[in-house]
Amino acid sequence: MKTEIRKYCCLALDPIHVGAGGYRLGRADNTIVREPATGVPKLPGTSIAGTMREYYRIHLQEEGKDEQEVIDVFGDESRRGRVRFYDGQILFFPVLSKKGTVWVTTPELLEYWLDIKLDPQGGVTAIHELDSDHINLGWLYFKSRKDPKELPSMIVKWVKRAVSVPDTLFSQIVNDNLEVRTSVRIDPETGTAKSGALFTYEAIPRGTILAFEMGFEEEFEVEDILPYFRYMGIGGMGTRGFGRIEIRELKEDAEP
């Protein structure tokens, strides 16, 4: 059966924490999932699928419909579902600059997700609402060139200024600018902070734009499910203000 692939983008309304599991050595105890080859954080397809499956079940309950449809669409241990989910990538990453917040991407990401072509050897390139010959991205300072591009209208509503950097720099810029928070475990008996239980955890920051794909063998009410992500979110730390995202199908020059 033919699978129709559709592209979606999402704006992080809160920081996003999809944990890698366990404790790691480094600046944060609880790290997030990353691409093994690049070290860039990602949104696993399994997290998208599991969350959407649960929100679809809630939607069917609210509509008074048979919850068997959840298994028909998403499958179970004995049958394959009608929808496939693929890992989400960071498409635009927000970084503090003297120019204000600047969203960083790469030529490869622009070409795959938005069909925008740039010279991959072009260095740091201002592509949207920047006219300076130099720019700082966090503590890094670059000479930049200008090559303005027309971004889809839904992206423009989220991104004020954008630059493209070589993929060799992208991982460093992203990982140097992740959000890291400190927290403490609460003793359930006393209701106070537990001694020696201070820990840190990292997250993809608010304002990040991610993109992912879904494969459809048959239609289902996916547009009815997407608003749930705006209110209930994805990933961990939901009770600490994490996880809400706004998802829209990535269509050329589409208005929301």
Number of helices: 6
Strand proportion: 25-35%
The description of the largest β-sheet is: 10 strands, mixed
**Could you say which overall geometry the principal axes of the C-alpha atoms support?**
globular
- The SSE order reads EEHHEEEEEHEEEEHEHEEEHE
Features:
single chain; two-stranded antiparallel sheet; 256 residues; alpha+beta; ten-stranded mixed β-sheet
Brief rundown of the structure:
The chain is of the alpha+beta class and about 260 residues long. The protein has helices at about 45-65, 70-75, 105-115, 155, 165-175, 220-230, and strands at about 5-10, 40-45, 75, 80, 85, 90-95, 100-105, 125-130, 135, 140-145, 145, 160-165, 180-185, 195-205, 210-215, 245-250.
Q: How would the blueprint of this fold be written?
A:
Blueprint: E1 4-12, E2 42-43, H1 45-63, H2 68-74, E3 75-76, E4 79-80, E5 83-85, E6 88-97, E7 100-105, H3 107-114, E8 125-128, E9 134-137, E10 140-143, E11 145-146, H4 153-156, E12 162-164, H5 167-176, E13 179-186, E14 193-203, E15 209-216, H6 222-232, E16 245-249
Parallel strand pairs: 7-12, 8-11
Antiparallel strand pairs: 1-15, 1-16, 2-6, 3-4, 5-15, 6-7, 6-15, 8-12, 9-10, 13-14
Helix pairs in contact: 1-6
